[in-house]
Amino acid sequence: MSQPASRIITDILNDAALRLDSSESVVTRQFLTNLRTLPDFIFKIARTMDEHDLDIMDTAGGMDGKAFPDWPYLHDIVDLYLAERGLLVEKARQLMLTWLFAAIVVWEVRSKPGQRWGWVTLKEGHADEALERMWAIIEHMPGQSIKTQQGAKAFKDAGGVLWKRSYCRIEIPSLRSNVHGMSQNVDDARSFTFSGIVVDEAAFQPKFQDAFSSLKPTIDKGRFVGITTAGPFGFCHQLFSGKSFEDIA
């Protein structure tokens, strides 16, 4: 004889309650809550990697990553990024700004659908290294790595969203969002408009001015971030002079 309908409904509700009380559900709720705002994502979820720092080693000897330090200037830059559509930041080494903007791009493509971001460096290989930093941030979010038949890198985060990694590219198929790594030639950038662009070490890119002009559709309507140490090429100095991006492009 089958169970009474009331008993079946009670069992279903009990099972649902157990799932909601499970540690996995707690992690999922916390992850999705901290994903809502950029400061929470940066300072509560994102983790960096520095192989020279033993603090990133976990108890099993693996790389556990390290949270962003609670430094006031990092909070200030996050606030500036949220307030300004275009941002140019002069940096020194060991300030963690490349890591910071890598984490910002990860948040942008995960928190909003249909995001297409570009990361521009002197050489394409350098851009792929930057995307590898992003992938390290992704793999240290709550979730699990996925084995694919093709041997490609994949990760499913605690919110159930699948990430894919290939050379100079990170994709989130379900959100139709992605990140492209590009050299300063940025020929591909002429064919479509990005949601945002990060140009890393812009002052060391001889073709940065040409790239800047190529990216004008993004600069006009999307987000532009330039981060650089002091370098030999003068176009960055024009940007630092206070002229608007639109006047120079």
Word description of this protein:
The protein is an alpha/beta fold and 249 residues long. The protein has two domains: 1-34; 69-248, Rossmann fold (3-Layer(aba) Sandwich), CATH 3.40.50. It has helices at residues 5-21, 23-34, 38-45, 72-83, 97-111, 124-139, 208-214, 216-221, 235-240, 245-248; strands spanning 47-48, 66-67, 86-90, 116-121, 143-147, 153-157, 162-166, 169-172, 177-183, 196-200, 223-228. The strands form two sheets. Strands 3-11-10-4-9-8-7-6-5 form a nine-stranded mixed beta sheet. The chain has a two-stranded antiparallel ribbon with strand order 1-2. A hairpin with a 5-residue loop joins strand 5 and strand 6. Helix 5 (97-111) packs across helix 6 (124-139).
In short:
With 249 residues, the protein is an alpha/beta fold. It has helices spanning 5-21, 23-34, 38-45, 72-83, 97-111, 124-139, 208-214, 216-221, 235-240, 245-248, and strands spanning 47-48, 66-67, 86-90, 116-121, 143-147, 153-157, 162-166, 169-172, 177-183, 196-200, 223-228.
